[in-house]
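FAQ

Q: What does a record look like?
A: Structure on top, sequence underneath. For example:
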């Protein structure tokens, strides 16, 4: 059985190590030409916290920006304080959460659409924000590009904002495809509404990909690495026509104790122990190094990754669930 030392770190939890190592071995054997990566954006590719403070989601970047009125900011904050605890509540079912998430996104998008946001201001809004990509993820983008491995970013955030983040980080390469909520601007470049279909945390599955040929075109790429931080992210690969090997990597950012024990006992995720320790989910080091191992053995080479610091990371890793 292959060893992946980075995945043995204390902050990494694997419910069925043998099975995960088997998956990693199979991905290696299949090679990089069979591999594709599917990832969430907010709090997965971007950081959850920094120096004890939360980092913004792509929605929060807009909410906190100078283009939103004080009244608008307050209303958006009130929505966040009401709905976010519901989003991450381990005691509610997905069926309970779904209509409430539709409500949150619809109300937030309506408020944002009343703020006369200019398309031309987006780049500056992102530059002035506190958003950060997770440590090591720039290198991941570089390596995936170098080896022509498709990266599909499936986000319930704001597409225009997240594209600008990765553009400013110089990693919006040709192998990156984004499906997200996009803004609709009028002829004067003023935001009037969001385009459909609405993507929220718990419909990130095939239902919102209809009409896109993305996964069909990649039908020979049957090895998947999936990265996420929410239970809703577990279905992101459902549209892939034939999955031979899938490794699901989850970052457990918030309410670590409660959510990890809940995940561990959830019947739907019998193989998942989930995990976490103190910290802000800020470093992706073991994951990045683990993925590096996989790519290396699969024919790629991720030398010069440049990430070695032992920063705290909250991470769950398992197969089948986080
Ligand atoms: P995702 O990471 O699953 O793509 O989800 C996007 C995140 O955006 C989700 O955790 C909730 C958050 N969000 C806000 O922060 N503000 C908002 O107004 C909305 C609608 C969502
Ligand atoms: Mg997320």
């Amino acid at each position: 059985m292959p060893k992946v030392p980075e995945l043995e770190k204390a902050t990494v939890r694997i419910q069925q190590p043998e099975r995960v190592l088997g998956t990693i071995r199979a991905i290696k054997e299949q090679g990089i030409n069979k591999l594709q990566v599917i990832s969430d954006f907010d709090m997965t590719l971007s950081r959850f916290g920094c120096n004890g403070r939360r980092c913004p989601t792509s929605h929060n970047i807009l909410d906190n920006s100078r283009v939103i009125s004080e009244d608008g900011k307050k209303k958006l904050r009130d929505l966040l304080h009401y709905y976010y605890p519901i989003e991450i509540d381990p005691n509610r079912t997905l069926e309970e959460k779904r209509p409430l998430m539709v409500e949150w996104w619809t109300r937030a998008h309506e408020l944002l659409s009343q703020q006369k946001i200019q398309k031309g201001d987006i780049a500056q809004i992102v530059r002035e924000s506190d958003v950060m990509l997770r440590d090591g993820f720039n290198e991941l983008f570089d390596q995936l590009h170098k080896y022509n491995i498709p990266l599909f970013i499936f986000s319930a955030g704001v597409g225009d904002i997240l594209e600008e983040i990765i553009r400013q980080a110089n990693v919006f390469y040709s192998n990156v495809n984004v499906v997200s909520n996009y803004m609709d601007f009028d002829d004067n470049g003023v935001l009037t509404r969001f385009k459909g279909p609405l993507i929220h945390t718990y419909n990130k599955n095939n239902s919102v990909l209809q009409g896109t040929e993305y996964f069909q075109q990649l039908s020979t790429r049957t090895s998947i690495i999936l990265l996420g931080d929410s239970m809703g992210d577990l279905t992101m690969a459902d549209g892939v026509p034939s999955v031979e090997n899938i490794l699901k990597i989850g970052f457990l950012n918030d309410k670590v104790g409660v959510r990890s024990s809940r995940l561990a006992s959830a019947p739907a995720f019998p193989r998942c122990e989930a995990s976490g320790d103190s910290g802000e989910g800020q470093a992706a080091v073991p994951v990045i190094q683990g993925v590096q191992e996989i790519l290396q053995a699969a024919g790629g080479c991720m030398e010069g990754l440049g990430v070695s610091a032992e920063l705290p990371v909250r991470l769950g890793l398992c197969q089948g669930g986080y």
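Q: Is there anything notable about this one?
A: The radius of gyration is 19 Å.
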